[in-house]
Amino acid sequence: MRQPLRWPWLDFDVDQVAAPAIAIGVDVTETRAEVREHWHRKGQLVFALGGAVTCRVPNELWMVPPHCGVWVPSRMEHSNIATANARIFFVYIEPGAADLPDRCCTLSISPLLREVIIELSECAPNDARCDFLGKVLLAELPLMPVQQLHLPISAEPRLRRIAEALADDPADRGTLAQWADRVALSESSLARLIVKETGLSFGRWRQQLHLIVALRELSSGASVQQVSGDLGYQSVTAFITMFKKALGKPPAKYLSDIARNGGSAFVA
């Protein structure tokens, strides 16, 4: 079934559907769309076939590039923001129906599973074909490789302030010392706080944010030149070098491999 991007759905409650797995397809219109924070009893796979989705859960920001999915466990609060013209599928799975992680993670989606999800979204939950497709999905999904592409966002007020400011203006090239001054900490204290709360250095943490923003914008059709400038890089070459060092391939190659191989372009 297909729906506009919103929550709750207009005509049914996913938690009241008895099927172990159901899928809903969403076509986002020309403008960016958001589903605000909510939760449901069923676990949810957020799968992007075109465009991109940013999924926020407590203390983390996850990116859903095309042909990949983010798994959100049962009862976890989350929100979704989709790029313009995105094509998204939400797969809802009964707790315990499949051996899936109890934490958020990015899953590579194989071409077979991609087609199963698409077909599952087109049939009624009580249809015999839907039951068969659901069983295939529940058998295949736990076999998908788990990959990490997310930004730790601490609940610590000063770090949340920095994260929100950088999300609003990713081109901000303020140094660690400048950010420390803005949040009334010494440079060394802020450096230790970031490592303690996120497990990353300030430079690596900001780079991870840049990767998430870059993939979101590139997936929605922005050029490498445009994204490079929006992120404050002095040259396109510098941006491509950062991207390749982090993800193993330059942007165009990375995204084309995801589209061709169903998510297996991930190396980090």
UniProtKB/TrEMBL annotation:
Entries under InterPro entries matching the protein: AraC-bd, Homeodomain-like_sf, HTH_AraC, RmlC-like_jellyroll, RmlC_Cupin_sf
Keywords of this entry: DNA-binding, Repressor, Transcription, Transcription regulation
Xref: Gene3D superfamilies: Homeodomain-like (1.10.10.60), Jelly Rolls (2.60.120.10)
Residue intervals of the HTH araC/xylS-type domain: 160-257
UniProt cross-references to Pfam families, sorted A to Z: AraC_binding (PF02311), HTH_18 (PF12833)
GO molecular function, one term: DNA-binding transcription factor activity
Descriptive protein name: Putative DNA-binding transcriptional regulator
Gene symbol of the encoding locus: yeaM
